Amino acid sequence: MEIGIIGGGAVGLLMAHYLGKRNKVTLYVRRSEQMELVNELGVGLGGTSDTVKVEARLIEDLSHHDLTFVCVKQNHLKGLMPVLEEIGDEETLVFLQNGMGHLERIRKLSSAVMVGVTEHGALKTADYSVRHTGKGVIRLASMEKSSNVDRLMEQLNQDHFPFIAERDYYHMLAKKLVVNAVINPLTALFEVRNGQLLENPFIHDLALGLCREACQVLKLDFAAEWENTERVARATAANYSSMYKDISACRPSEIEAITGYLLAETDTLPIHSFIYQAIKAKEFERRKEGHHG
Ligand code: KPL
User: Domain named Ketopantoate reductase C-terminal: which ranges (predicted)?
Assistant: First the structure.
């Protein structure tokens, strides 16, 4: 299969590495330095000598593939829309973003739009290398009623990189949103790894409160979602969340797409409102420090 992967971050590199073992993969990136490095060195799995040859191109040169994964963060999706609109409405596009605010926009792009969530831990160690820090799965669901998700699963699935088909895309994204709305801001705020959320009794209490409020908005069962959040925190215990990494690196975080999405749904979420303000304040301070140092 010919697969396009848009985004040269940790998730894009991880997918390019594994899917490139069995398919013809083209990785689309923003910077020409990264393009040149990937074309020269392939995409390596950090800490191993396992490298896969992958073709890299710049995002503005996006062309047709059997399937294209969009692995950029929500913050970069808006800027990508003109390129995606040009690619045509028959392209199979799979969006792997945290949050849910993008659904209406992406649905209009093609008659074959899918969404996915990744439960892998991944750390970008260089422009051409990614460390697989937590083995998980990628769940995919179609936004259309009639779709070929099952056939696609057979083609994508591999032992060390499994895919699971989900029937209800909204439910799948809502469950992931709860996990992200609990783990990401708390780990970023208190500068801890995902596993410490369960070990520190004070952070643990905040996590419970955030989970309860998120479940109220999204109409999910609290006990089931808390169990799921604990499972993810345990499976990725040694990792730093993407929000922790973004804020530490003075990059804009996904707080708007995650907590901001919940707050836009209702104005009665006191713990999320507080955490949102605290993350905004932290981002502001980090960026000020970044500019000066
Ligand atoms: O998706 C994640 C993220 O960091 O964005 C989790 C599941 C919290 C893993 O770190």
Answer: 171-283
